[in-house]
Design brief:
Elements (H helix, E strand, L loop, with lengths): L7 E6 L2 H9 L8 E4 L8 E4 L1 H4 L9 H7 L4 E3 L3 H16 L5 E5 L2 E5 L4 H4 L2 H16 L3 E6 L2 H8 L7 E3 L5 H5 L12 H9 L5 H6 L2 H8 L1 H10 L15 E12 L2 H21 L2 E12 L4 E12 L2 H14 L8 E9 L2 E2 L15 H21 L16
Parallel strand pairs: 2-4, 7-8
Antiparallel strand pairs: 1-6, 1-7, 2-3, 5-6, 9-12, 10-11, 10-12, 10-13
Length: 399
C-alpha cells in the first residue's frame, strides 16, 4: 500500500442542486436546468446544470439574464429541505470512512483520511470507494481531489469535473500548481489579482518564485500567506463540525445594495442561520464579526467581543447591526456581500446558554427567547425551514 504521510480529500458534489432536480425529474435529465429565484424580484441562479453552463449561465448570475441566455431551459425554485435530505446521505458516506469530516456546505467537505489508511487502504482507493458509494446511494456524482493538504485537495477536485478524481501527490504539487492562474488561490479576488498582475504575476508558478519577503512588502501579511499557498504549504487542519473556530454565514446580492433596511434584513437571515448552527452543536460564542464586500470588491471585517457568550440570534444580530451602522460605510457605499459570524466558541453548559439575558431587561425575557428559538428549531427540523418564518425585523439594537 502507498501510505501517505498526510492525506486530505476534498469532495465536491457536481452541480448539486441542479443534479438533485434532474434526479427527481427524469424528464429534465440531459436538459439545461437552473435552480434560481424569480426573475422579477432580483432572483439569482443558485445552481446551474452542466448543460446550461454551455450557454454561459453560472451560479450567482441574475435569473433574468440566465433566461435571456437560455430561454428554453428549465428554471425551477430551490427546495432546500430536499437538498438537505440528500446531503445527509452523502455525509453518512463520509462518516463511515473517517470522523474527521469538515463540512463546507451541503455539497462540499474536506476529509482527513490519514489515520484510516490501514483500515481502508491508500487515499486513492478511499476516494474511489466514496465516489462509488455516493453514486449507488444517491444516484449523483461527486468530484474528489486527493492531496496532502486542504488547499491543494480543493484545487484538485476542480480540475476534472464532473465525476472526476484528481490526485496530486506531495512531490508533484509545485509542478501541477504552476500553470494555474493565481485566481485559483484562496483569498485572491479581483482586487488582489489585479495587484499581482501589475507585478507581472499571473500564474501560481510565477507567484511561487517570488521571495516571501518581497510579497510581504507588496501585500503585507497576505503576501506571506499567498507565498506559502503557491508553494503548496497549508498546515491548516480538517476541523469537524462542532469543533470550528468560528461559525459564519454570508450573502452575495444580485446587485449592489445601499439601503440599510435591505442590508439589515440580509444580516438577520445570516445571523439566524449562525444561531441555528450554534444551538445544533450546543455551542456559544463571544466575538461577533461583521463582513462586508463593497461594490469595488474592497472587503472589510469588524469585530466586537460580547460581555457574555450567546447562541441567540437577537444578540448576534443586534451587535452585527450596530457594527454595520457605526463602524462601516454601508448606506454610503454600495455593498456587494454581507456576512456575520461568531468566534470565541465554547461548549454550552447549563446556564451558559442563557447568558444572552445580559442584553435584555430581565432574565425571563432571555429565557423565553431561548425556549422560542429551540421550539422553532424543532419545527424546522421536522417540517422544513419554511414552516416558520420571522414576520419583521423588530429587534432591539442595543442603542
Amino acid at each position: 500500500m502507498d501510505y501517505w504521510r498526510r492525506a486530505v480529500l476534498h469532495v465536491d458534489m457536481d452541480a448539486f442542486y441542479a443534479s438533485v432536480e434532474q434526479l427527481d425529474h427524469p424528464e429534465w435529465r440531459g436538459r439545461p436546468v437552473a435552480v434560481c429565484g424569480p426573475a422579477n424580484s432580483r432572483g439569482v441562479v443558485s445552481a446551474a446544470s452542466y448543460e446550461i453552463r454551455a450557454y454561459g449561465v453560472k451560479s450567482a448570475m441574475p435569473t433574468a439574464r440566465a433566461m435571456r441566455l437560455c430561454p428554453g431551459a428549465v428554471f425551477t425554485p430551490p427546495r432546500l429541505e430536499r437538498y438537505a435530505e440528500v446531503s445527509e446521505r452523502v455525509f453518512a458516506v463520509f462518516s463511515r470512512v473517517t470522523p474527521l469530516v469538515q463540512p463546507v456546505s451541503l455539497d462540499e467537505a474536506f476529509l482527513d483520511v490519514t489515520g484510516c489508511q490501514r483500515l481502508h487502504g491508500d487515499p486513492v482507493r478511499i476516494a474511489r470507494r466514496i465516489r462509488k458509494s455516493i453514486r449507488l446511494e444517491t444516484g449523483l456524482t461527486a468530484s474528489v481531489g486527493v492531496a496532502s493538504c486542504r488547499f491543494v485537495a480543493k484545487i484538485a477536485s476542480d480540475l476534472d469535473k464532473p465525476d472526476g478524481l484528481t490526485v496530486i501527490p506531495e512531490e508533484e504539487i509545485l509542478e501541477r500548481l504552476a500553470p494555474l492562474p493565481v485566481g485559483k488561490i484562496w483569498g485572491v479576488g479581483p482586487v488582489t489579482r489585479r495587484r499581482l498582475e501589475k507585478l507581472g504575476i499571473v500564474s501560481i508558478g510565477q507567484l511561487a518564485q517570488w521571495p516571501e519577503e518581497a510579497l510581504a512588502a507588496e501585500l503585507g501579511s497576505a503576501g506571506r500567506e499567498l507565498s506559502r499557498l503557491a508553494n503548496g504549504i497549508d498546515p491548516s487542519p480538517v476541523t469537524p463540525e462542532g469543533e470550528e473556530k468560528s461559525i459564519s454565514g454570508e450573502h452575495t446580492f444580485a446587485a449592489d445594495v445601499t439601503l440599510m433596511a435591505e442590508l439589515k434584513e440580509a444580516l438577520l437571515e445570516q445571523a439566524e442561520r449562525v444561531a441555528e448552527r450554534l444551538r445544533k452543536n450546543r455551542l456559544v460564542g463571544r466575538v461577533v464579526c461583521l463582513k462586508l464586500r463593497y461594490g469595488d470588491f474592497t472587503a472589510v471585517t469588524r469585530r466586537k467581543t460580547l460581555p457574555a457568550a450567546t447562541c441567540l440570534v437577537e444578540v448576534i444580530w443586534a451587535e452585527a447591526a450596530r457594527l454595520l451602522r457605526e463602524r462601516s460605510d454601508a448606506g454610503r457605499r454600495p455593498v456587494r456581500l454581507i456576512g456575520v459570524g461568531l468566534s470565541g466558541l465554547a461548549a454550552a453548559e447549563g446556564d451558559q446558554e442563557n447568558q444572552g439575558r445580559l442584553f435584555f431587561p430581565s432574565a425571563s425575557d432571555a429565557a423565553k427567547l431561548e425556549r422560542l428559538a429551540r421550539a422553532t428549531d424543532r419545527i424546522r427540523d421536522k417540517m422544513g425551514r419554511n414552516a416558520i418564518q420571522r414576520a419583521s425585523l423588530r429587534f432591539r439594537e442595543g442603542k
